[in-house]
Amino acid sequence: MHDLVIRSRRVALPEGIRAAAIAVRDGKIVALADYDAVLPAAATTDLADLVVLPGLVDSHVHVNEPGRTEWEGFATATKAAAAGGVTTIVDMPLNSLPPTVTVPHLETKRSVAVGQCHVDVAFWGGAIPGNLTSLRPLHEAGVVGFKCFLSPSGVDEFPPLGLGEVEQVMRELVAFDGLLVVHAEDPVRLHDPVDGSYRAFLDSRPGAAEKAAVQEVIALAEATGVRAHILHVSAAACLEPLAAAQARGVRITAETCPHYLTLSAAEASSTAFKCCPPIRDAGNQDALWQGLADGVLSCVVSDHSPCTPELKEGDFATAWGGISSLQIGLPAVWTAAAERGFRLTDVVRWMAAAPAELAGLSHKGRIAIGCDADLVAFDPWAPITVDPGALAHKNPITPYGGRELRGLVHATWLRGRVVGNGHPPAGSLISLHHNRIGNHV
């Protein structure tokens, strides 16, 4: 007897979309059968022609709790995730107070998350000046990897690393095959905007700054043998050095974000569009899509970095830089991808399988026997209009307000349980070692 069977004529399996029945027991997928197979179960759901996707994995989310919970907290962020078909998030180590740069700080963050999470949550550790000896203990405590900045992060408690310090961190991580994820902008090539316009802000963070930093990270990764990953690639100039490094066998991957793929500089009508690195022009956007098609960019993740409305006031020189898109990443990316001739299976690879692989969460991101029964009922052609006030994240700020998209999430299951839509929190805290180290109980 199975706990649950979900049937659909369109299930997004690793080998493609086909009719299937998914059997779930104890939160895991235990069988995949024909759509009309006889599978005894305590409950059966027939979704007919709705597509069943694996739950998305968003490996780049700033929750900000504790310390800046007025910006975003675990309850609101994970509720938004569930509403958007995201069943696992990986929380970034900064903007919370304290930042996740020691094991006690990690335990502080975990303690406040327990009981609040509507989806599963894993954690990044941070690499900052002075915490080299904390990296292995953090790894052993279950963080999925370590984030560093090469340029100022925007918060004083999470300073950037110099290149010599980056090399030290890499040599420490390679001893236990740790992963370093890098905000790559060369600080020497950044400058303050000359005025408050979007053009001045864009000019202050040129693509050349990204490319130069990416080249430095590649050189260090090649010298040390570490696993490295470039976060939120916005500049197409980065693609050539990344492709060349990957072809030579350097252990380096890269991601981009929905806003770089779906928004352009010409649309930047308010500070809701401000993020670092910035949204660039339409030609640059075309090249990023090609980077995904070529496999140079493997992941599409939100970089959900919210703040209070007050911090988004002012102009592009003074407002906080961060985009809120955790709930609407799937329809935003799918709408643009479909227009460019990509398939829904491509979106699943970019937004579920690849981020799960990056974070070492092998039991996530795929509809396969043995994986967690994290599933999404999705209507890819249903029209939606983004209403900022109806989004579940804490502050109703998004550059997607009023935008017409396609793709509606009808239901989200986490380990076989429906989440979101008024259901109580059912998420667990998970570690790199695949242990559930805390949960909703």
From TrEMBL:
Q: How does it assemble?
A: Homotetramer.
- Superkingdom is Bacteria
Function description? Catalyzes the reversible cyclization of carbamoyl aspartate to dihydroorotate.
Q: Which InterPro entries match?
A: Allantoinase, Amidohydro-rel, DHOase/Allantoinase_Hydrolase, Dihydroorotase_CS, Metal-dep_hydrolase_composite, Metal_Hydrolase
**Which terms are listed as keywords in the entry?**
Hydrolase, Metal-binding, Zinc
Provide the E.C. number(s) assigned to this enzyme.
Answer: 3.5.2.5
Could you tell me which pathway this protein works in? Nitrogen metabolism; (S)-allantoin degradation; allantoate from (S)-allantoin: step 1/1
This protein is called allantoinase
List where the protein spans the membrane: none
Ranges for domain Amidohydrolase-related: 51-419
| Family statement drawn from the similarity comment of this UniProt entry | Belongs to the metallo-dependent hydrolases superfamily. Allantoinase family. Belongs to the metallo-dependent hydrolases superfamily. DHOase family. Class I DHOase subfamily.
Q: Which cofactor does it need?
A: Zn(2+)
Q: Which GO terms describe its molecular function?
A: allantoinase activity
Q: Which organism is it from?
A: Nocardia suismassiliense
* Taxonomy of the source species: Bacteria, Bacillati, Actinomycetota, Actinomycetes, Mycobacteriales
